Every structure is written in structure tokens, then in C-alpha cells.
Amino acid sequence: MAALMIDYEALAAEAAKLQAEGDAMSECIEKITSIVNALPEIWQAETGTKYVEQYFDLEPGLKETVELISDMVTQMNQISTNFQDTDTGMAGQM
To answer: 35-78 pLDDT, tens per residue?
Structure first.
């Protein structure tokens, strides 16, 4: 039989850390995108064009990762709340 244990405060703290890192990642992507957008002004060559194209081919995946992190945070918070509410409700029935 599997045991179930959730430290609600610890889970919320980890979700907050994950959210902060997701926010930092989003800011980083924005900064990198800004830098890459400026490259054609200073790097006018086929290699520069390819570099920019390569980044923009990968950018959607980076943004999807940030969205995934945000979804994970939401799910962690919902799971914690649901388990806590259920546990509190069941304890009140005893």
C-alpha cells in the first residue's frame, strides 16, 4: 500500500520558487529575443541571417517551456488546496 503525505506549506513554497524561476526564464527569453532582433543591424551576412532564423525556430519551444512551468505551478497549488480542503473536511466529519 502506498502512503500519501503532503506538506501543504512546503508544496506552496516550492510552487512559489518554481513560479519565480519561470518568471526569470521568461524575462531571459525576452532579453535574448531583443538581442537577436538587433543582430541584423550589426551582422549582415548569411551566417547572421541563419543564426537569427535558427533562434526564432527554437523560440516557440522556449516559450512553451515557460507556459509548462506556469501550468505546473497552477497544478501544484490546486492539488495542495484540494488535498488540504478534503483532509480538513474529512477531519471535521469525525
So the answer is: 999 999 999 999 999 999 999 999 999 999 999 999 999 999 99
pTM check: above 0.85? no
Count: domains in the chain: 1
Does residue 68 fall inside a structural domain?
yes
CB-CB contact of 62 with 29 (8 Å): yes
Is 36 inside any structural domain?
yes
Question: Which domain range does residue 44 map to?
Answer: 24-77
Helices 46-92, 8-42: crossing angle, 10 deg rounding = 170
Q: Please give the distance of CA 94 from its chain centroid, rounded to a whole number.
A: 39
Rounded Cα distance, 62 and 80, in Å: 27
- Length of the chain measured in residues: 94
Choose among 88, 62, 78: nearest CA to 15: 78
Which of 21, 17, 25 is CA-nearest to residue 77? 17
32 within domain boundaries: yes
